[in-house]
Amino acid sequence: MNDTSHREPAVEAAGLHRRYGPAGAAGFDAVRGLDLTVHRGELFALLGTNGAGKTSSMELIEGLAAPTAGTVRVLGRDPYRERTAVRQRIGIMLQEGGFPGDLTVAETGRTWTGLTSGARPVDEALELVGLLDRRRVRVKQLSGGERRRLDLAIALLGRPEVLFLDEPTTGLDPEARAAVWRLVRELREQGTTVLLTTHYLEEAEELADRLAIMHRGRVVAGGTVAEVIAGHPSRITFELPERCGAYDGLGLPAMPGAEVAADGRRITVRTPTLQATLTGLLGWAAHHGVALGGLDARSASLEEAFLAIAADAAETTPAPSLIGNAR
Ligand SMILES: Nc1ncnc2c1ncn2[C@@H]1O[C@H](COP(=O)(O)OP(=O)(O)OP(=O)(O)O)[C@@H](O)[C@H]1O
């Protein structure tokens, strides 16, 4: 874990709103009061259900659009109003780079170099993302994964202090994804601040110092991975030996606060207190000489926590169309 909380913020968003279309019922509030701080050198992941407002928020923070309300500061400046100053210090990897298909990979890099102050050599950026051997290939001939890597190379050209990655590994095979993770970790170790959106919870678990989960334009949970997972039940699974018969005839030990479900001899226990429940269960098994087949005990995964948080938020957060104008 990379504790950056003492450092000055690289990104600060307060009360951000983004509305598409007119005021009133005909418009749509995609971002509804986003507060976010990313410290310098931190890797922050923005997660959320489809349409939660991640891209809409990223575009405000990147200075590509003006917020309907609220403030954003990137490296202490307004990324929309002071765009020229901010753009020199940030790198943006959009969901769709949209580069002309007839240019080669190297030509695309050179075109962007001309627009980037203090750019690193194109070949260096291509090497970072493993595309050097594809430098003479036309963009339209690249695979989807290679295009994503070209998007990343372009974002890295200006040696950015803050790097914005919108779903950076979508469409990449597992090997290419692992390579991007290694690169992002290296960049972070060199001091780059990274704000990324992703649908891959494993990616957030692997990379993020802190994360926020968005639902319908708002942050509904946030913190370190451990903080977000905390409070979600751990799971113990095992199979009773045949001689025990069906679970309901056996009388498992009391497991306060736990939920027990049986599928024949296969038992699943969900518990908020993993250590205490497991200790009780193992003591009971030892006392009765019962072998717990395939015993597995694990804390909630980020995926389980995410699904529970999203389901909870869906029940408690009305759809934006029912809210009307959020301002
Ligand atoms: N230009 C637009 N006009 C109207 N509504 C829009 C526009 N762009 C996005 N939206 C809506 O705003 C909401 C948020 O979209 P956004 O793309 O920010 O979400 P997201 O969290 O990035 O989604 P995903 O995970 O599916 O990429 C969605 O309901 C989307 O349909």
From TrEMBL:
Which keywords does UniProt give here? Antibiotic resistance, ATP-binding, Nucleotide-binding, Transport
Q: Which GO terms describe its cellular component?
A: plasma membrane
Q: Which GO terms describe its biological process?
A: response to antibiotic
Which CDD domains is this protein grouped with? Answer: ABC_DR_subfamily_A (cd03230)
Q: Which PANTHER family match?
A: ABC TRANSPORTER ATP-BINDING PROTEIN
Annotated organism of origin:
Kitasatospora camelliae
Query: This protein is called what?
Result: ABC transporter ATP-binding protein
Q: Name one GO molecular function term.
A: ATP hydrolysis activity
Name the predominant localization. membrane
Per UniProt, what is the membrane topology? Answer: Peripheral membrane protein
Q: Where in the cell is it found?
A: Cell membrane
Q: Which Pfam family, an example, fits this chain?
A: ABC_tran
Every copy of the ABC transporter domain together lies at: 11-241
